[in-house]
Amino acid sequence: MRLIIAIGIIVALLISIKLSTVLVDKSGFGKSVSIYRMKYIKKTIHIALLFIYLAILVMFLSIEYSQVLIFISSIFAVLGVALFAQWSILSNITASLIIFFGFPYRVGDYITVVDKEADISGVIEEISLFHVLIKREGQLISYPNTMILQKPVVQNIRVEEITPPTDAS
């Protein structure tokens, strides 16, 4: 019976991975997101799914509680120290997921990031797992994902993109 449950959990994991891949591809292609960016979003989601299903598998296999507790507490202790030391990395990855699904701007859009020190205007060159690359007057500016979510972003319309109205007479 345990074997059937384990196989069922593994099959559910594979289906979840496939479904998440299809959903990210559909959302990414619909928003004209680069394949490079979609690849990293898929990897992040797949790793999260793997940990979730691994926890479910351990619960259903009834591995001795004390052994699992020691193992998990050791992993959490190491991860806690590592993630506390690298909190900005974790927050940038989380911000990347939010940007992927909810950011209204795309590669090629001309934007202004409003900052109290100096506004940054330019064209979005790339949106990666940790930062957004903005090209401005020959400069390539790397702006962290967490910061771009915290600051107001204005989408600018270039003069050449504005088309004059035509008379229908």
Q: Segments where pLDDT lies below 50 for 5+ residues?
A: none
The mean pLDDT is 81
Number of DSSP helical runs: 5
Specify the biggest β-sheet. 5 strands, antiparallel
Strand order of the largest sheet: 4-3-2-1-5
Order of helices and strands: HHHHEEEEHE
Radius of gyration: 22 Å
Instruction: Name the helicity range.
Output: 55-70%
Distance between the termini: 78 Å
Please give the number of β-strands: 5
Number of domains: 2
Strand content: 15-25%
Structural category is alpha+beta
Q: Estimate the global geometry from the Cα principal axes.
A: elongated
How would you describe this structure to a colleague?
This protein has 169 residues and is α+β, with helices and mostly antiparallel strands. It has 2 domains: 2-85, no CATH class; 105-157, SH3 type barrels (Roll), CATH 2.30.30.600. 58% of the residues lie in helices and 16% in strands. It has 5 helices and 5 strands. A 5-stranded antiparallel sheet has the order 4-3-2-1-5. A hairpin with a 2-residue loop joins strand 3 (131-136) and strand 4 (139-144). Helix 1 (2-30) packs antiparallel against helix 2 and helix 3 (65-85) crosses helix 4. The protein is elongated and about 70 Å long.
